[in-house]
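ARCHIVE CARD
SHELF: 3
SLOT: left
DATA:
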Amino acid sequence: MPTTRRARVPFRRDDAVETTVSGTTVDHLTETYRAHYRSLLGLAALLLDDTASCEDVVQEAFIRVHSARKRVRDPEKTLAYLRQTVVNLSRSALRRRILGLKLLSKPMPDMASAEEGAYDQLERDALIKAMRGLQRRQREVLVLRYFADMTEAQVAETLGISLGSVKAYGSRGIAALRVAMGAKA
């Protein structure tokens, strides 16, 4: 069996340069803009809901294809590239819009109004004043128990008093606070 050799065609450097240089020209893109701007705007309008976004998408599509015109080797495919770019940009715009709606739909944390904040401050001031009116041991027990969030056993150990004393001082301190706070209200 004789083997046939394929004739090698020498690679010409001029051909490679010519194919990379060829592409969509600015004139062809300008003509495509004049002829197909309205249809591309209609395409974007089918995908998006407001005119301003549609115009932005179509303009951005032309800008992107213009900057990549050397890669569009066949000028007849320019319109196809533009259509695909309009579709992709419309999808991106919708994604951003949906993400924005998701972020906006999350309820804002409840914030106290200025009046509530002032009222809370008044209550806090009244509580501090009432706490100052307690006996020293009652104040210490209540502060450690309720503000430092210690157990009765931890308060007893910290103050060096018995568990029963902690309960008694705590009970008497709360009763005194009720009287002092009730008189203020």
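SLOT: right
DATA:
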Amino acid sequence: MEIHHNTRLTSAEISQIWGSYQNDTLTVCVLRYFLAHVEDDDIRRLLQYNLEVAESHVHKLTTMCKNENFPVPVGFTEDDVHVDAPRLFSDTFMLFYAQQIGKLGMNAHSVSTALSARPDIHAYFFECLKEYGDLHEKANHLLLSKGLYVRPPYIPYPEQVDFVSNRDFLTGWFGDRRPLTSLEITNLYDNIQRNSLGVAVLMGFSQVARSKKVTQYMRRGKKIAAKHVEVFGSILTEDDIPSAVTWDSEVTRSTTAPFSDKLMMFHVTALIAIGIGYYGTSMSTSMRRDIPLKYTRLTAEIAKYSEDGAKLMIDNGWLENPPQSPDRDKLAKE
């Protein structure tokens, strides 16, 4: 059925367009720098594909805003990237980074698609979802072909279908803990991978940040991410499940900034927001009592870290104001 009337954007659609513009302009900056330094031809082609996708998104989002008489966000520009800066990350890191872009892009755009009612906006985000799915598939294939794909732990196949018959299934604080379920293992391992990659990002950013306060913020974040890796890894170790994943060696010794402090701060706070979402999902699907308790404690820690990052960005004039509803009380007084 065709819809002929012209419907205004909802708050949900506005939020997704604005957020996508910020993320895509950041991605363009990061990939332009990566492409100036990548040596492996296969990885170069993947990064080039990723860049073309992100640039097409920026163009479409810009057109969308103009058609709606909606201010085009500032986002990130060529002033936020210095492609001639020395290499900060290895080719291997760039490949894993592209894989994560695909994974995070699928998650983000599945939400955006579900929140979009207007057919043209829904179609746009659904197309983005397919593009990031394609990127993730290409990155996985390349990682597998190079023997770099990090597989989650293996567990034996179940021998039969069974039902929980004892409330000890929920025990975690006291008494004997049951073995981890496959879903609990999946979430723990996935969170270890994201935090391990985060350690490398924060390590690199701490080396090149111009502001002393930004450097301190990045170093603090690196310690937090490393601690979270240790906490999640210890839960897996109790069940004799391997968890070691590190990317520290993929960061060079460069101290020359390829990105503005503004971009690096936004990048880190955006990753924290994504991490909090994953922790929430992990918490809700973990039935052993001790595991949600750990997620709750760690979520509070990174939420405080994120808030401190927002304050630092505000103090430096780096935090772009997202679209808001009118302040009716203020309008009435005026």
